[in-house]
Amino acid sequence: MDCKASHEINPTGPNQPIEKGETLDDKLGNWKGVNDFVYKASRQAVSSYNFYSIVYDPMTTCGCCECVAAILPSCNGIMTVNREYNEMTPCGMKFTTLAGTIGGGAVTPGFVGHSKYNICQRKFVAGDGGLLRVVWMPKMLKEELKERFEKRAEELGVPDLLDRIADETVGTTEEEILPFLTEKKHPALEMDPIM
Prior knowledge:
Layout: H1 2-9, E1 23-25, E2 30-31, H2 32-41, E3 67-72, E4 77-82, H3 95-102, E5 111-114, E6 134-136, H4 139-155, H5 161-164, H6 174-183
Parallel strand pairs: 4-6
Antiparallel strand pairs: 1-2, 3-4, 3-5
């Protein structure tokens, strides 16, 4: 609704309706109409991106996102960190560095900016395995999303998924969290390789 109102107030502003057009990849979330718009709006810098992947041509973002997700290759999963968490993360960067890395509209494979509530949506990195790929989150974010997260995990058939996800009390490096994930039998460890 906010975007629609913004477009009505300023038709040439940052919020514009875009026709999806022909579906090019349903799993990764790629549409011809969106690609055409992105190519034109980016002054031919970005020709295509996928809405549902962190690995293959992920969405562009600015550095003002609420969270940043990043691949943790040794854990065969992803982590996500919220803006309020100021400490080191298992990908070796703090939120501020991550936001600077993905900001500016660049397509950065292995990283994507998103909102907090996007984590519990059905299409969150669905092209790469979705919520079952999440192996690390700050404790404060786990607590904030607990009710929504548990509902989504129940839908996926892993009702205790949140308890299987590491946080800073377990560790802040891949080496520190991998034994926890193994002990908890995190589903990401049994999935196809993320990369």
